[in-house]
Amino acid sequence: MKMKSPNQSNKIVYIVLALLTLTPWVTPAMSLFAGIIFALLFKIPNPTLNKNLSNNLMKWSVVFLGFGLNAVDAMKTGSEGSLITFSSIALTLTFGAYIGKKLGLDKTIYRLIASGTAICGGSAIAAMAPALKADQHQISVAMATVFILNAVALVAFPVIGEYFHLSQTQFGWWAALAIHDTSAVVGAAAKYGEEALQIATTVKLTRALWIVPISLIAAFSQKGKMSLKTMPVFILGFIVAMLINSYVPGAQAFAPLCKFIAHKGLSLALFTVGCTMDVSSVKHVGTRPMYQGIALWVIVSSISLYAVIHLF
User: Fold this and answer.
1) Please, what's the b/e burial string for 248-276 (b: 16 or more CB within 10 A of its CB; e: otherwise)?
2) CA of 1: how far to CAs of 9, 59, 129, 225, 232, in Å?
3) Fewest CB within 10 A of the end CB: N or C in the chain?
4) DSSP state letters, 4-27
5) In degrees, to the nearest 5, what angle opens at C-alpha 47 toward C-alphas 46 and 50?
6) In the chain, where do the E strands start and end?
7) Where are the domains of the chain?
8) Where mainly located (predicted)?
9) 242, 67 in Cβ contact below 8 A?
10) In 133-167, where does DSSP find H-type helix?
11) DSSP 286
12) Residues 255 and 68 sit within 8 Å (Cβ to Cβ)
């Protein structure tokens, strides 16, 4: 009986883990860390295929995320707190750049972390990565930083909210402004109450619209001028998907399926991204990206907490 070669074993484990990311009970965060664990224990059987899957799945996942947004509802809710949302995003991106520069981080990495913190976690990083021409290593570092802090927020925010006696409205706004990923926002708000959940979800989806202008600006800044060549087509697809979901009769019936496809596509993409995070790359990057993520998150959380206490 022939023994399986190391490369065959790698392929089997890779395929099994990739298929598991498509199951309902595996979250995007779990997929990312499954990829990281694979990278630490095995070698990628086909690096070229892994890279192509990562790039294309992320773009298409962002497009399908658009089917989960309603332009009318998003604009209505967004207009009520547009100044707060804009100020929060602007301050986060500014502080993110400042902290990243002070820590001597790679420019692309600190811009990805800042974008993920400012807008909507992994989805924002997925959208910004092609616009910034980020490589898989830069993406994996940013994703890992954001998802670790997401996990902390899911547990810590309801406890902090109770400590400060935040109302349902206050907590809903705070969670939407200070927690990175939409899933973590929904999870934390659901623990706090039904009203907080409704407010947090709507505000967070409105913030997700900022993926579009921020990604376009990032893409244009890469070459210093606006042109069709620098425009990320998948972002336009995101806009079209949102408009279809909002205005085409019967389109909303397919929204749950599109949302599922988007999350599973992102989940598989994150697995392929995690597979590039080997020991040498982790040692090369060190702990500085996490320092940036923590410092930026503490600043944003504190300022937004102060704001919601005094404004709502």
Assistant:
1) eeeeeeebeebbebbbbbbbbbbbbbbbb
2) 16, 44, 46, 62, 52
3) N
4) PPHHHHHHHHHHHHHHHTTSTT--
5) 90
6) none
7) 8-311
8) membrane
9) yes
10) 136-163
11) T
12) yes
Q: Tell me, what's the pLDDT at 281?
A: 57
Residue 296's contacts (CB-CB under 8 Å, 6 or more residues apart) are: 92, 95, 96, 99, 113, 114, 117
- Mean pLDDT by runs of 10 across the 312 residues of the chain is 63 90 80 84 84 79 79 67 81 92 90 89 81 82 83 86 94 91 78 84 77 76 51 71 87 84 82 75 69 91 92 82
**What pLDDT sits at residue 296?**
92
In the prediction, which pLDDT does 127 show? 78
Instruction: Say how far apart CA 253 and CA 65 lie, in whole Å.
Output: 15
The Cα 118–Cα 296 span in angstroms is 10
* Integer Cα distance of 133 and 137 in angstroms: 12
Closest alpha carbon to 166 in 137, 193, 134, 204? 193
C-beta neighbour count of 214 within 10 angstroms = 22
Mean residue pLDDT of the chain comes to: 81
Radius of gyration of the chain (CA): 19
Please, what sign has the CA dihedral across residues 245, 247, 253, 254?
negative
